[in-house]
Amino acid sequence: MGRSADYSRQRDASAACLDIIGEPWTLLIIRDAFRGLTRFEQWQDSLGLARNVLAARLKHLVANGIFETRLYCERPQRHEYLLTEKGRALRGILLHMVDWGQTYVYQDEKPLIEGFHSCGNRIKPVIYCAHCEQQMLPGDIERHRNPEAKSIAELAKQAMAAE
Amino acid sequence: MGRSADYSRQRDASAACLDIIGEPWTLLIIRDAFRGLTRFEQWQDSLGLARNVLAARLKHLVANGIFETRLYCERPQRHEYLLTEKGRALRGILLHMVDWGQTYVYQDEKPLIEGFHSCGNRIKPVIYCAHCEQQMLPGDIERHRNPEAKSIAELAKQAMAAE
Question: Do B13 and A145 touch (CB under 8 A)?
Answer without folding.
Answer: no
